Each structure stands twice: as structure tokens, then as C-alpha cells.
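Batch job 17 of 40 flagged for manual review because the log was empty.
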Amino acid sequence: MDALACAAPALRAKDYKSDIRPVWCPGCGHFAALAALTKAAARLKLRKEDLAVVSGIGCSSRLPAYLDAYGFHGVHGRALAVGAGLKAARPDLTVVVAGGDGDGFSIGGNHFLHACRRNMDMTYIVMDNEVYGMTKGQASPTTRPDWTRGKLTPHGTGMPQLQPAAIALAAGASFIARGFSGDPTAVTELLVDAIEHPGFAFVQMLSPCQTFQPEEKEWKAMVHPWPEGPTDDPAEAARLIQQDDGMALGLIFQRRLPVWYPQSVPRTKLGDIEAEFVV
């Protein structure tokens, strides 16, 4: 039989969606992340069995359940650690890690730093809505200092917003981009580039929370293209990021850096290990 006749039909974006209906609030930006990821998978012609999506805790971390691919819903802040372990054990898989600003930059901040500098070949999508939505609206690391809607911070946080792109650059990430849920087509393009990039690719997606941050509806009028094309110069990228208002969209930084792969270590017999502890 002809090889082409035996080939599996090309998958469409909807083929990557599971039968589980998302429970996000109407208007949540996370719907765009789901749409963009499924479209990117279709564009890249990924087989379902070759795609693994790992998440932590939060509204955004429900994502794996809505996909018909391998998924792992982990614990708070540890999604990158699980993703790194999976990539080390199965380097043949396309590993995508998904989370939110609280999960990724607060309790998971340490893992974020070291994932950037380790530069394993995986993609990290952070759906940033500047709030802890699932736990009813607490301030997150990216919340504005004057935000007083949160019950725990009625006078604002009094702290400057974390700059994820700046942190990623300083930690050594080799791919840094920012998208907006209001433009899922552009986010799809960024995810295609991120997944194809050899190394750790960080995509910050501005994802308004209609429930606890209704003022974020204004983001649609505030976002604008990144002022210049992507650079591979860290110093230039740092200058542009520091001048940025946090609303510029596009590929910010991309550079080919050595990708970390686990070294193959000969398996040691249990008896040999026990002999080392004999006094």
C-alpha cells in the first residue's frame, strides 16, 4: 500500500481538545491560551502522543484537562520542576508547561529562575492576569502597587510589580516573548516559534481576569507592538525591557544558547551501593 495512503490524517486544532468543558469565567483570557496552543500544535503537526502539558495550581493550570494529549496537573509552583524531570526522562516529547503569575512567579519563582538558566528544550506559558483568581482575588507578584480591590491589600501592595521579562533575561532564558489574549492569532505565532526554539522558551501572555480585575478590559486599548524586532543582544534587550510599559507585544529576545541535556550515567547495582556504606 502507498505510504501516503497509510499516513494519518492531519489533525486540526479542535482535535487536540478533550471532551471536558472549561470552567473558566465567561470572558477569561485563558480561553485564548487554549485556542492558541491547539492551533500551534496543529500548525506544527504534533502527534497527540508526542505532546505533554504540565501545570501547577490556579485557574490557568486547569489547561491540561482541556487537551487531548498527555497532561500532568501538579502542585503549586512546581510545574517547571515536573516539566524538567519529564523532559530529562523523555527528551523525545514536546513539553509545554503552563501556569499563572502567582503559581509561576511567587511560590514557583525559584524554579522559574533555574529553568531559565538551565535552558532545557521546553516551552513555558504564563497566563498573567495580575491576580490570584482561583482563591478569590489576592494580589500576585505582578499586581500593580496601587491596586486596592483585593481584600488582603485594601491600601495596595506598596511594592513594585515584578517584571517577568526582565527576570527571565537576567536568569538566562534564550527566548522571551509577550502576547495578549485579545489577539490569539499572534499568540499562536509566538507559541509556534517558542516550541520550535531549541531551548527554554518563555511566553508571558497578558490574560485579563474579568471577575477580579474587571479594569483589565482596558488592556485591549493599551497593548501595542514591541517597538523593535527581536534582538539576540542581552544588553539591548535589557535596555528595551526597562523602557517598556509592560504592554508591548511580540518576540523580545531570542538567542541560540547551549541546551541542557541529562548525561547518560551507567546504572549501578544495588549491591555496589550497599558496599560503599559498609564500615
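Reviewer: the log was empty due to a logging misconfiguration, but the result itself is present. The first helix runs from residue 3 to 6. Unflagging and moving on to job 18.
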